[in-house]
Prior knowledge:
Strand order of the largest sheet: 7-8-9-10-11-17-18
Shape: globular
CATH superfamily of the largest domain: Ribonuclease Z/Hydroxyacylglutathione hydrolase-like
Number of domains: 2
CATH class of the largest domain: Alpha Beta
Order of helices and strands: EEEEEHEEEEEEHEHEHEEHEHEHE
Distance between the termini: 34 Å
Strand content: 15-25%
Largest sheet: 7 strands, mixed
CATH architecture of the largest domain: 4-Layer Sandwich
Amino acid sequence: xxxxxxxxxxxxxxxxxxxxxxxxxxxxxxxxxxxxxxxxxxxxxxxxxxxxxxxxxxxxxxxxxxxxxxxxxxxxxxxxxxxxxxxxxxxxxxxxxxxxxxxxxxxxxxxxxxxxxxxxxxxxxxxxxxxxxxxxxxxxxxxxxxxxxxxxxxxxxxxxxxxxxxxxxxxxxxxxxxxxxxxxxxxxxxxxxxxxxxxxxxxxxxxxxxxxxxxxxxxxxxxxxxxxxxxxxxxxxxxxxxxxxxxxxxxxxxxxxxxxxxxxxxxxxxxxxxxxxxxxxxxxxxxxxxxxxxxxxxxxxxxxxxxxxxxxxxxxxxxxxxxxxxxxxxxxxxx
Length: 335
């Protein structure tokens, strides 16, 4: 007997009468993380990790009915034990573990297996059923270690500064932006944040997440303040009038999709850095094998390809689920 069923409102655990990351308003929602395709407005009651609290209130409203847990802290609802475990995706991201009458199901949300130094590192949770994303579930997706990527980012910034150009780097405002900020070399120059990123930083800092506190870009700042600087902005700022104050500048973007030939050109940026907060192909396999799950449900991404691989290579029963989770979107939406 499965502990989950897919309904028009999302993944549902009937025994506990709770939904995990529902996409329609419900009475009780367990939220894996605060990205917009997982944490939506309109739930009567939310349950999430402590580090997600302030950013969820920032995005969904200060008055939402939100209960928070620490990792591995169990609660019981109608005989179902529910606990949250590190997913390593962004600060506060969690896998949801459900246990009932000896059956264990884990919903991973989004995850990555590389420790980014900011999010609590991914921890595999043994289970009978595992719900896994596969945003980058194709063999072409294999990430370099993040230290190499950050070395490239800092060198790009340093070169731009020497050439008298400012650097504008696009990264999602929750998770990736803070990861990048914490790995920038402050000896190169000043670092500034777009307002959306600065607001997110303040919410995370208020929750005890060790994000570097950098100044916000404001109208009052003179153009000279940005000389040789690094400006971190969300993808929505690409090509907007807001960019004019930084000229002359070079642009870069951080995304797993930069692994695909032509992605940088299609996004009209100067440089692309292959940096994702999702597991690559080897990471997905590593995570799934570590769970020892007998059955795996796959959401968003290349589900058919990855499903076939798991069945044929490991003999794991794999099933694709048609969900509304977007993941690291190729169109560079907010999340």
